[in-house]
Amino acid sequence: MCDSCATAAEATTEETERRGRLSRRGLITGTGLGLALSALGLQTGATTASAATAKNGRWANPALGRFPAGGHYGAPRGGAAHAGQDVSNSTGTAVYAAAAGTVVRRSWGGGLTGRTGNALVVSHGSGQYTYYGHLNAYRVALNATVAAGQRIADMGATGNVTGPHLHFETHSGGLGVTVDPVTFMTARGVDLGGGWPRIDPGASGKTVVVIQYLMTQRGYGLVADGQYGTVSSDAVKRFQKAKGLVADGQVGPATWPHLIYTLRQGSSGSHVRALQNALNKRSAGLVVDGTFGTVTTSAVRTYQGVNRLVADGEAGPVTWQALVG
Fold first, then answer.
1. How far is CA 97 from the centre of its chain?
2. Which end of the chain lies in a sparser environment, N or C, as judged by fewer CB atoms within 10 Å?
3. Residue 63 in 3-state DSSP?
4. Which ranges of 136-229 would DSSP assign to H, the alpha helix?
């Protein structure tokens, strides 16, 4: 885990300019808490609907691994607090963009006080940033535009660390205003621990396309347009009801296992198109033809290998969960 990666005693230049003379202590105990609650939709007057819309399919798990002891947000770091969540795995494990955005930092420590090692910072607009630290290798350039789930780096052990891992931070309200990445990502339907994602009606993007193709294979005949509107959500509710699940339209941990198929070379159909789209979200670059041939098999094995899964070329529940998470 990180031996440093602590929140600086004072805000970054961007945050200092924005917040004037507010102390870092005040940001953590006051504003930082308010922003964290806001991200979760728990502030006074927030509605369930407004919180639910954050699970919009636009966010993705940045890396697979385990949470090491003491690597959590807020853990003590030499009189300061750990600014992110550590995710441990082997050097070379793939690191992905948590959401679409622009690479604004690509340097040692990402230009942020208290951080060490090769790092990237991605701006997602509206004052939201993600930080990826201790990288072994970069896979994108400075100022590059990235998509959610795109491979952007390799996990490593550069800087002040005790072993290879990703140091992942979420900043909300400006670069320098860190919030707990676990709660931030949970509010957006992503389980940093590697579980199934939650996708709500109103979502859009490639994960919605995956759902629509899987639903078509299940006999519901949806158009794979990437828009999780009324037609798609009503179909999912019917599917959930038929499976004895809560028919709320949210595709989450209870629904995904019933929706996916175990696929291998020789399979064909809309479920294979779903798999190919899920792989493409993770930078596979496949032609979506619905045929599980040698090229798709190779892409599955490559994905499994760089994420330290069993590289057997078969898309079972473990591989699906990692892909769509």
1. 7
2. N
3. coil
4. 181-186, 206-217
The rounded distance, in Å, linking the Cα atoms of 213 and 217 is: 6
**What is the C-alpha separation between 43 and 95, in angstroms, rounded?**
32
Order across the sheet with 94-96: list the strands: 94-96, 151-155, 135-138
Contact present, 136 and 120 (Cβ < 8 Å): no
Instruction: Write out the H or E segment, with its range, that includes residue 217.
Output: helix 206-217
CA angle 284-61-294, nearest 5°?
25
Q: Give the Cα separation of 198 and 182 in Å (integer).
A: 14
* Rounded Cα–Cα distance for residues 188 and 172 (Å): 13
CA distance 221 to 283: 27
pLDDT of 40 higher than 70: no
| Residue type at position 193 | G
DSSP letter, residue 179? E
Q: Answer yes or no: is pLDDT of 18 > 60.
A: no
Q: What is the pTM of this model?
A: 0.86
